[in-house]
Design a protein that fits this description.
The protein has 21 helices and four strands. It is mainly α. The chain has one domain. Strand 2 and strand 3 form a beta hairpin. The protein is globular.
């Protein structure tokens, strides 16, 4: 009893449980809830990185280790009930644009991720990140999230086989009767139904159910005994750890992949943090977010670590809202999530048995969730509406988040200047738009 009391006293001092009006029990339950909502990333991220040529076993290991360490730091250093993991959208940009479209090696892509982490760190120390966020119009911020959602959903639909390439129409309906496509369609509808009923961990349940059915129908390998499962080795980062090509990324150009990684993560993470800290009541009387500098520092360090370990950029996850809704208010929630990620390493070999078409529906559904903000995008003023539209539509149609940013930012500056509203353009927006324009000109 005395030891338990001492442990609770230590946790109270570290995480300020009494001050936040919460308990150890509440925080642990909240952490478990967040982990269940977030666990799908262990299945989805390695499949996306595998498309970039990263060995899947190493991708599984790096995904779990980075999520665990970054989330642990967020809990202990920033005292936030927020989990971090390789970001959706950022991993798609990594795999399908930097590696797929630009044909750069995944090692160079990791080098760009590392540089973006360094930039985050320097910008956080100088207070620049907040200044950049404040300079971008709210309408474009919302459009960015919507565009990324469409891009992710497009990738997911290709992964399910529901859409395929076509010479005449560019894209057309796939072979819906194919067994893997039928199973993916089942996974999509089943998971969506669970989400509609507010079932926690719906994405994870959908992935597991689709995988089990694929084994039943002989579409993916089946472990025949406990011995087969036990014989699967724990995943190792040996093939990715320290393999980043920093000089290759620098030589390719700072106004290309490094700049885009930085900008995408900047808006994605800040938007998420603002939403989560508001929900967790971590905003003081002056409207300032508690320990924001520490949270942003955690994000920056986590990004550099992710590059060294061999995965795309880490970011704060909106799924943390599930744990916050359960009463999570402190970093003990995040520490619980981190511990569960570490425990999951022992079950990671089973993740390698999950086929890509089982995780593709999760991409579609994450995209659908990100699309929800489209109702808040204003189109009534066309000088705002056109840049928002170009930001959204150019991401999936060019398979590039960077192009969406470029056309959105450039068109915003042009439209506002042309209609006599140049006062609405900040100095930073001018700079960013000119940088994008120069980058497009160099690629012409």
């Amino acid at each position: 009893m005395a030891e338990a009391s001492q442990s609770q006293g230590l946790l109270d001092r570290v995480f300020k449980l009494r001050q936040k009006n919460t308990t150890v029990h509440t925080e642990i339950i909240a952490g478990m809830t967040t982990f269940i909502a977030l666990a799908y990333i262990m299945f989805v991220n390695p499949n996306i990185l595998a498309d970039a040529g990263i060995p899947k076993e190493a991708a599984i290991a790096s995904t779990i280790w980075v999520a665990a360490l970054a989330t642990m730091m967020m809990g202990v250093f920033a005292n936030y009930p927020v989990a971090l993991a390789p970001g959706m959208g950022l991993n798609a940009f990594f795999a399908y644009y930097v590696v797929g479209t630009l044909h750069l090696s995944w090692q160079v892509a990791l080098g760009a991720v590392f540089f973006s982490g360094v930039l985050f760190f320097l910008m956080t120390l100088g207070g620049i990140r907040q200044a950049i966020i404040n300079s971008v119009p709210a309408n474009l911020k919302k459009a960015i999230g919507v565009g990324i959602g469409l891009f992710i959903a497009f990738i997911g639909l290709k992964g399910t086989g529901l859409i395929i390439a076509d010479k005449a129409t560019y894209i057309t309906l796939g072979h819906v009767g194919a067994p893997t496509t039928l199973l993916a369609l089942f996974g999509l509808l089943f998971t969506a139904a669970l989400m509609a009923r507010d079932v926690r961990g719906a994405l994870l349940i959908g992935i597991v159910a689709t995988t089990l059915l694929s084994m039943v129908f002989g579409l993916s390998p089946v472990p025949h005994s406990i011995k087969d499962i036990m014989s699967l080795q724990l995943p190792s980062m040996g093939q990715t750890f320290g393999q980043l090509d920093i000089m290759g990324a620098w030589q390719y150009g700072i106004f290309s992949i490094i700049f885009t990684f930085t900008v995408v993560e900047l808006f994605d993470n800040m938007g998420t943090l603002i939403g989560l800290t508001t929900k967790a009541k971590l905003i003081n009387e002056n409207g300032e977010i508690e320990n924001l500098d520490r949270a942003l520092t955690t994000d920056a360090v986590g990004t550099m670590v992710s590059a060294v370990f061999g995965t795309s950029t880490v970011t704060s996850y909106i799924e943390s809202a599930a744990g916050i809704a359960e009463g999570g208010k402190t970093g003990l929630t995040a520490v619980t999530v981190a511990v569960l990620f570490l425990i999951s390493l022992f079950f990671a070999p089973l993740i390698g048995l999950v086929p890509a078409f089982a995780t593709a529906p999760a991409l579609v559904l994450v995209g659908a969730l990100m699309m929800s903000d489209v109702v808040n995008v204003k189109f009534d003023d066309f000088s705002d509406g056109l840049p928002a539209f170009l930001t959204i539509i150019m991401m999936p149609l060019t398979s590039s988040i960077a192009n969406g940013f470029a056309f959105g930012f450039i068109s915003f500056v042009f439209m506002k200047a042309f209609v006599g509203k140049a006062r609405e353009i900040s100095l930073i927006m001018w700079f960013v738009s000119i940088a994008f324009l120069v980058n497009l000109a160099m690629r012409a």
